[in-house]
Design goal:
Helices cover 46% and strands 15% of the residues. By secondary structure, the chain is an alpha+beta fold.
């Protein structure tokens, strides 16, 4: 079946040269942009040029202000979007809002201003999205093909999550296992072909879920409870 990361890799590899980057995110609770209710996704897998987003979207909470995420939380249909104000897409009216300015500026600076997103509203009120950043404008045929890939991906990920290790996602358990073997975050990133910041995020999430004081404590708890080998 493969890990969540492997499944996202397969989709990204199949998307073709027009797609600059890909982001999959999943949360077991509904998305909320309200500060008191907002929870970062449990899983964020970024590929290609989109990897640059992760630190700001998580660390600076720009995910909460992202109008694409807000829109996806309210609708069921896949949609095309653009942060170029002259282009008429479903988020155009949101671009004038003050808290969106930093999101828009960063995406345009990174030439990630156009794309398409598939909202994935899950049983048990969970929420996920799959977003592709594209060169030029995505047409309806491209969006339809992408939506089919997104729903197939979520079906496979849902099976994978049900087979996960206790409270940890498979990627979190994998990072903890490498930590237990003595690898640093930088070494784990090299081993998994991921960014160091992504590895740190997984380790922090694992420690938080396990109530651990630090990474070593998280390894000890996870080993004792059988969540890692």
């Amino acid at each position: 079946m493969g890990t969540v990361a492997d499944l996202v890799d397969a989709v990204y590899a199949d998307l073709g040269p027009k797609v600059q980057g890909l982001v999959y995110d999943y949360s077991p609770v509904p998305f909320s942009h309200e500060p008191g209710r907002f929870v970062l996704p449990e899983i964020i897998e970024a590929r290609g040029a989109a990897e640059v987003l992760v630190d700001d979207w998580c660390g600076r909470s720009l995910y909460r202000a992202d109008p694409v995420q807000r829109r996806a939380a309210k609708i069921l249909n896949p949609f095309v979007w653009s942060y170029h104000a002259e282009e008429c897409t479903v988020i155009r009216e949101d671009l004038v809002q003050g808290d969106v300015r930093e999101v828009r500026e960063r995406l345009l600076d990174w030439t990630l201003g156009r794309g398409m997103t598939v909202p994935l509203h899950l049983p048990g009120r969970g929420f996920a999205t799959l977003s592709a950043f594209v060169e030029g404008r995505a047409d309806m045929d491209m969006l339809a093909r992408f939506a089919l890939q997104a729903f197939k991906l979520q079906d496979r990920i849902s099976v994978e999550l049900r087979q996960g290790r206790g409270p940890l996602t498979l990627r979190e358990a994998e990072c903890l296992s490498h930590t237990a073997a003595g690898l640093s975050a930088k070494q784990i990133a090299h081993e998994l072909n991921r960014s160091e910041s992504m590895v740190v995020k997984h380790l922090q999430a694992a420690a938080s879920k396990l109530g651990a004081r630090n990474r070593s404590h998280a390894v000890a708890i996870a080993t004792r409870q059988g969540w890692i080998d």
